[in-house]
Amino acid sequence: MLKHVMRRGAIKPYCGYSLTELLVACGLASIVISAVATQAARSHIAHSSIQHATSVEDDIRALQSTITQHLSKAGFVYSPNTLSPFGATTIENTVFEVTTGHRANEPENSCVTFSYDKNKDGVVSQAQGEFFGYRLHDNAIEYRVAGHSCIQRGWYDLTDTQTTVATKFTVNRRHSSSWGSAYEIEIELHSKVDPTVKSARTFIVEAVNAYY
C-alpha cells in the first residue's frame, strides 16, 4: 500500500538550493558590491577634486579682480579744477608711489603698497581706508590695514588658510613712463585638502597715475 501511495506522488522530495549554489551566489554578490563601492569611491574622489579645483580657480579669479581694481587706481587724486582729475598724490610733502617689498622670510617683491583717492574728495586719507596693499605671508595672501608697511604685523588674510595655500605672489614693475606704469602680478594657489590641485596666473595691471 505504501509503495502504491509513493508511486502516486503522495510523498514528494524537498526542493531548494545546495550549499555550493549559495556560496557561488554570495561570491558573485560580493564582487558586484565591491565593484559598485569602488566606483562610488572613485566618483566621490573625482567630484571632490573638481570641487577643490573650482574653489581654487574662484579664489585666484577673485584675487586678480580685486588687485587689478585697486592697483590700477594707484596715485589717483580727484581734482575738479583741472582738465584731468588725475594726478600724483602728495602726503606730508612726500610724493606717493607704488612700492614693493617683502615680509621677513618671504620672497622679494611679494608685497606691494599704494594709495589713491577712493572717495574722490581730493585727499588721500588713512582714516578713509585709502591706503592699500597686498602681500604674501605664511602661505596666505593678506591685505593692508591701517597703513602698515610690508614688514609690519596687523595685515588681514585675504585667502582662507583652511582651504587654500598661497605659494607665490610677486609684483614687478615692467614698464614706467609719463603715462604711468605697468606691473606684472604672479599668483599661485594650492588646495590644502588636495595638494595636487593648483592654479597659477600671471597678469598685467596698468596704473596710469603711477609715474614712479
Number of alpha- plus pi-helical segments: 2
Oligomeric status? single chain
Order of SSEs: HHEEEEEEEEEE
Classify the secondary structure makeup into a structural class: alpha+beta
Low-confidence stretches: 85-95
Largest beta sheet, briefly?
A: 5 strands, antiparallel
Structural write-up:
The protein is of the alpha+beta class and 212 residues long. The protein has one domain. The chain is built from two helices and ten strands, in the order H-H-E-E-E-E-E-E-E-E-E-E. The longest helix has 53 residues. The N and C termini lie far apart (121 Å).
Give a summary of the structure in a few sentences.
By secondary structure, the protein is of the alpha+beta class. The protein has two helices and ten strands; from the N terminus they run H-H-E-E-E-E-E-E-E-E-E-E. A hairpin with a 6-residue loop joins strand 9 (180-191) and strand 10 (198-207).
Key phrases:
single chain, 3-stranded antiparallel beta sheet, 29% strand, rod-shaped, alpha+beta, 2 helices, 212 residues
Write the layout of secondary structure elements.
Blueprint: H1 2-7, H2 19-71, E1 90-91, E2 94-95, E3 99-101, E4 111-115, E5 131-137, E6 140-143, E7 156-157, E8 164-177, E9 180-191, E10 198-207
Antiparallel strand pairs: 1-2, 3-4, 4-5, 5-6, 6-7, 8-9, 9-10
